Amino acid sequence: MNLEELTQTIVQALEDVKAKDVKIFNTEALTDQFERVVIASGTSNRQTRALAYAVSAAVKEAGADVLGMEGQDTGEWVLVDCGSVVCHVLQPNVRDYYNLEEIWGGKEVFMRANEECASRLMPHRVQHAPDAEA
Quick count: other Cβ atoms within 10 Å of Cβ 96? Predict the structure, then answer.
């Protein structure tokens, strides 16, 4: 499974369980440990754990490996290590406090939209244009 497919699988799993504020960051220039960081919010301990388990199950079902999962005991911040992509699922107050977006820095990755989503994108924003590269 290539990087884009793995990232899409993770994002789709998060969206299926109604994650809030999903963001993807390219970390290739920052670390050699992984290439993407996906950050999402859940509204409660239960939802945060459910989001992480959904990511884990979807990645395994797609034939990729989940190297580890941490934080599911409290559910405030659950990390799912999928090798080249690391997924952080946090409650909003924890996400605000740690501000991972600032740590992993700046350049958010926009995935190529599926055809069915193209009509809902904001074409006036260059990064959202349907023909923009991911």
Answer: 10
Domain membership of residue 133 (yes or no) is no
Token pair of 61, please?
């079902």
The sign of the torsion formed by the CA atoms of 88, 92, 93, 98 equals: positive
For residue 86, which of 52, 49, 127 has the smallest C-alpha distance? Answer: 52
Provide the token pair at 132: 């923009």
pLDDT tens digit sequence for 20-33: 999 999 988 888 89
Run of H or E including 61: helix 45-61
Distances (CA, A) of 82 to 19, 61, 120: 18, 13, 30
| Residue 107 predicted with pLDDT over 70 | no
Rounded to 5°, the CA angle 95-84-4 comes to: 95
Count of CA atoms in the C-beta half-sphere (13 A) of 111: 20
Domain contains 69: yes
- The pTM (predicted TM-score) of the whole model is 0.79
134 located within any domain: no
